[in-house]
Amino acid sequence: MFPSCLPYRIRPVISSNNPFSELLRMLTTSSIAIASSKLERAQEYARRHGICRAYGSYEELAKDPEVDVIYVGSLNTQHLGQTILFLRAKKNVLCEKPMGMNAREVREMIRTARENDVFLMEGFWTRFFPVSEQIRNTLCQKSLGNLKVLRAQMAVRMDDIPRLLEKKLGGGIILDLGCYCIQFASMVFGPEMPQSIVASGLLNKTGVDETVSIILNYSANRQAVLNVTMMIDFPTVMFLKENRWEWPLPPSPERLYFKHNIGFRYQIEHVRECLENGLKESPIMPLEESERIVCIMDEARKQVGVVYEQDRNM
Q1: Pick from 180, 155, 175: which is nearest to 164 by CA?
Q2: Strand partners, 150
Q3: Banded pLDDT at 232 (limits 50, 70, 90)
Q4: d(CA 212, CA 292)
């Protein structure tokens, strides 16, 4: 269910540490539901977060006629199967980034969404922050002139999180944080593939990437330099001449179980607006861009040497 009690009923399919259900509960006065492959796990999660309904299978959720939208926030390797299931059941889907393990999976999801005439969007929550909106407006106004070089880096110490360390779980820093930097470059430099992609990185003992640098060269001598790592923490810094820009989070009516995740609200509200207007994809995060982003990630992984089981038949 979305804010303002609009007639869109959302059900999450999420991992145990995902903040989405807690945020949805805060935003609505109606019940939501949780689905898991194990009923006991779904019931426990529902109990902890005050969710009224728990499903013991994704098929059961897909058949629920009261469900309008499903948020898929499970492991990366599970996105394809779950998203296809829900799309074929005529459910609108918000799928957490990365939408698929590779371009083939993303294209299959896009094709299925269009065949079933339902909404599909990749969940890059930062794309909907007020700061992102202001950056887009600034770029449209060309008040910064012609941008030539973009630098983006994300460094978060996460080398103890199993899902990031195991290849069979879709681990690795490109899929987890690299996609954020790539989508930012895509937003700034516009709807085109880079003319060249150069990537270098370090792998851990399980064969997933833990530190990666990516250079994207675009037309008109424009370049994006991206760095991501799960080995250290590094603060986020933004310099804009002599100005300091701040974008406060929207107020929270109650204390959240997960800290600092109220920013998910912007993404939820955008999906609601899309559905209100009968859209099948987001104008801010279009499916064509999701396909372009995953193609860049595929090439970066290829150069770094990260190959998943899902890549074997490509």
Answers
A1: 175
A2: 224
A3: confident
A4: 19
User: 148: exposed, middle or buried (C-beta count within 10 Å: 0-12, 13-18, 19+)?
Assistant: exposed
pLDDT, tens digit, for every residue of 259-282?
445 678 889 889 989 999 999 999
Q: Model pTM greater than 0.90? A: no
Q: How, if at all, do strands 53-55 and 69-73 pair?
A: unpaired
In Å, how far are 10, 101, 147, 153, 298 from 20, measured between CA atoms?
11, 21, 35, 25, 28
Using the structure block, give the residue that is written with the tokens 């990366």: 76
Packing angle, helices 20-27 and 264-276, rounded to 10: 60
pLDDT of 313 reads 74
Summarised one tens digit per residue, pLDDT across range 129-150 is: 988 998 899 899 888 788 899 9
Residue type, 282: S
Q: What is the average per-residue pLDDT within 9-33?
A: 53
**Within 10 Å of residue 3's Cβ, how many Cβ atoms?**
15
Q: Specify which residues 149 forms β-bridges with.
A: 223
With b for 16 or more beta-carbon neighbours within 10 A and e for fewer, the 80-119 pattern comes to bebbbbbbebebbbbbbbbbbbbbebbbebbebbeebebb
